[in-house]
Amino acid sequence: MKRFRILLLLALLCAGFSARAQETHLFVQRDTCALYLDIYYPAAGAETVLGDHEKPTVLFVFGGGFIGGRRSDPFVRHWFERLNADGYGVVAIDYRLGMKGYKVGKGLSGAFKAADRFRLSQDVGVEDVFSAMEFLAAHPELSVDTDNVVLAGSSAGAIISLASVYAVANGKAPAGIRFKGVMSFAGAIISTSGKPKFKQAPCPMLLFHGTEDGAVAYKRFGFFGKGIWGSSFIAKQLSKKGWDCHIWRFEGSTHDVAAYMDYLWPIEKEFLEKDCTLGISRRTDATLTDDSLPRWKAVTMETLY
């Protein structure tokens, strides 16, 4: 009987841990939809402290052209597991898909006419990121320190992530919201009022982008003050100010880079440890070609919309 009780206790402890390893919560109810987030806690036994510093939680914003995608698509789950194994928590969030059902016309004129809608899609995504942060801050029992969060996003999610950091740097975020860093996989900032200008130093940035990206501009796309300003533009602006930024330019690559989260782990790990956890000031500007990285069918504005 004693042995049975011990086994039962162990089973209950394991069941409790499994429930704690992933949780799903409604974080905001919008007029059009309910938005949820998933929490993935660090793996049992993982080192969650580096020196005297707690490792941050990574808040992930999925991609999908503002028309689709899911907060925990199968292709990112292994990356989440990698982060958890290294002592990082992960929060994956929903956001409103502002381009879903919206018809974009062909060519430059179509993109120009849709500029305001793209900007709206970015901005509601930023609002949803901030709502997720406010929810986590209001629920300390979830054990997510909102003063120690790194944003990460792919494609549309990278756009939202960079725009969120931009809003914080320009004093347009809710009080108390800040980030320890941002990892952007093929991201940019959409503006309809001229090129974006950072008024203050943003959190450290890690930017990955293909130089031939046909879906999210690597440099800049647009005219008359309306357009999308990509990783190369952002890195150049921050470099002129001497602010911390790492850009990895994938020579000849297209929008494939948006799906490289699990392939660039050594670079991400160094950024998370040195820049985001230890607060070491660093900068990188690297151009590379790596034939070992996967290539998929090129995604462009025309194929998306």
Account of the protein in words:
The strands form 3 sheets. Strands 1-2-6-5-7-8-10-13-14 form a 9-stranded mixed β-sheet, with helices on both faces. Strands 9-12-11 form a 3-stranded antiparallel β-sheet. Helices cover 34% and strands 23% of the residues. The protein starts with a helix and ends with a helix. The chain is an alpha/beta fold. The chain has a single domain (21-304), classed as Rossmann fold. It is globular.
Short précis:
This protein is of the alpha/beta class and 305 residues long. It has one domain: Alpha/Beta hydrolase fold, catalytic domain (Rossmann fold, 3-Layer(aba) Sandwich). The protein contains eight helices and 14 strands.
Biggest sheet overview? 9 strands, mixed
The CATH first-level class comes to: Alpha Beta
Strand order of the largest sheet: 1-2-6-5-7-8-10-13-14
Helical residues, percent = 25-40%
Separation of the first and last Cα atoms: 65 Å
User: Could you tell me the radius of gyration in angstroms?
Assistant: 20 Å
H/E order of the elements?
A: HEEEEEHEHHEHEEEEEHEHEH
Query: What percentage of amino acids are in beta strands?
Result: 15-25%
Shape: globular
CATH architecture: 3-Layer(aba) Sandwich
- Mean pLDDT metric: 91
Annotation, overall tally of beta strands: 14
CATH superfamily: Alpha/Beta hydrolase fold, catalytic domain
Give the helix tally: 8
Extract low-pLDDT stretches.
1-21
Which structural class should the secondary elements be placed in? alpha/beta
The CATH topology annotation reads as Rossmann fold
The tally of structural domains comes to 1
